[in-house]
Specification:
By secondary structure, this protein is an alpha/beta fold. It is built from nine helices and eleven strands.
């Protein structure tokens, strides 16, 4: 894929097998508002990839396009080898999605929620029974399988949501701030499961505001006002921004976005990704 003009593309080459996610000049506008502009991104198979940026940077819009829930204005995107504009339904059958407001049914038990989502993703009969049993065991939900989902604590709801989102063993899993409001112990356990999924071959794309979680990602991408600013490992990102930590880089990026002079680079030039289009997002 051609390197986008002006963006710090820090990532190493793909390890083989083709990318799990690839976008080329992806753009989304809402009238005069440019939410995502000229996004070129490659995410390798089996990678835990973090998408960071201040509120309004275009993260959720990007994920909605990649999930086939929102049509791009222009550009191309492929997820699990499927074009999101040409076959959005095909994309949705090969991905999982989980957010902090995942749609669990409070008046159904843990087991009933799992059975429901397994059915939604096309599992039937013995295959569904076996998968639900496997999910209950793997995420430690067996003792709570008959408990109503609405009575679960935040950490347990998170487990159930992750199990539901992965009922069909998706090739790519999108996690949109999945641990917001969850206690640190539950967040740590959640990430153990994420690594286990990645080890089994699932590609993970996660947005988060927790910098300790960002540090757990193999690579990171920073968005600002709809533009891709930098892509790379934690070390490459901090070197690019000239900061000691990823958190410092995030705070600096947020400061730029919140000031009237937000379009200026700290050294007095333009932002690295400003090669065209609107800064608004």
């Amino acid at each position: 894929m051609t390197e986008p003009h002006g963006v710090a593309m820090l990532e190493s080459s793909d390890g083989g097998g083709g990318p799990a996610v690839q976008t080329e000049r992806l753009r989304k506008t809402f009238g005069a508002l440019v939410a995502v502009d000229a996004l070129d991104l490659t995410i390798h198979r089996g990678e835990v990839f973090g998408l960071l940026g201040p509120n309004g940077s275009g993260k959720t819009t990007t994920i909605r396009m990649l999930c086939g829930l929102m049509a791009p204005t222009s550009g191309r995107a492929q997820v699990a080898g499927i074009d999101v504009a040409e076959d959005p339904e095909g994309v949705r059958h090969r991905i999982g999605y989980m957010s902090q407001k995942f749609g669990l049914y409070d008046d159904l038990t843990v087991q009933e929620n799992l059975r429901f989502y397994a059915s939604v993703y096309g599992l039937r009969g013995g295959e569904r029974v076996a998968r639900v049993k496997e999910q209950l065991h793997d995420l430690g939900l067996e003792e709570r399988q008959h408990q109503l989902a609405g009575t679960l604590s935040g950490g347990w709801k998170q487990r159930l949501a992750l199990a539901s989102a992965t009922s069909h063993k998706p090739e790519v899993l999108f996690l949109d701030e999945p641990t917001a409001g969850v206690d640190p112990a539950s967040r740590r356990l959640f990430w153990d499961w994420i690594y286990a999924l990645a080890k089994s071959g699932t590609t993970i794309l996660v947005t988060t505001h927790y910098m300790d979680e960002a540090a757990r990602c193999s690579r990171l991408a920073f968005l600002s006002r709809g533009h891709l600013i930098a892509v790379g490992t934690q070390e490459e990102i901090t070197r690019h921004f000239g900061t000691e930590t990823v958190e410092d880089a995030f705070i600096e990026l947020q400061r730029r976005d919140e000031t009237p002079e937000g379009g200026k680079h700290p050294e007095g030039g333009r932002r690295p990704a400003e090669s065209g289009g609107s800064d608004r997002a």
